[in-house]
Design a protein that fits this description.
5-stranded antiparallel sheet; globular; 129 residues; mainly beta
Length: 129
């Protein structure tokens, strides 16, 4: 018998002016009992060039942070790159993360270029499927 689908949806930041340095959005989010996280971002571009959304994973609360990463390979050598999600235009955007096997996530924002005057609002949905 299949387990019933479970979902939690929460807003973690109302529309707020973006910061010019990497700044946490909301607080730690426990993702242990979920498989998928969909992050919804409402971005209004201001004087900044773009805003980066940066997910980081933690094994324990207040512990070391591990960036979401991609691995690429050539000739048997794998190279890691910390992932960022860059928004360059006003709009409603989303990204989906596989959170299976992860405990906690923190989301960060970071404006690039110019003087930040744009805003970003962030919410998320966690699901078990």
């Amino acid at each position: 018998m299949a387990m019933p689908r479970r979902e939690i949806t929460t807003e973690i930041q109302t529309a707020s002016v973006i910061h010019a340095a990497e700044t946490v959005i909301g607080s730690e989010i426990d993702v242990r009992n979920f498989s998928t996280m969909c992050i919804y971002i409402d971005y209004t571009n201001g004087d900044e060039t773009s805003v980066d959304i940066i997910p980081k994973f933690l094994r324990v609360s207040s512990g070391d942070e591990y960036p979401d990463c991609s691995w690429s390979g050539a000739a048997g050598t794998r190279t890691v790159t910390a992932d960022i999600y860059r928004l360059t235009a006003t709009g409603k955007h989303f990204l989906v993360l596989d959170v299976r096997g992860k405990n906690i996530i923190k989301l960060y924002e970071d404006a690039t270029g110019g003087t930040p005057t744009g805003t970003v609002a962030v919410s998320y949905a966690l699901s078990t499927d």
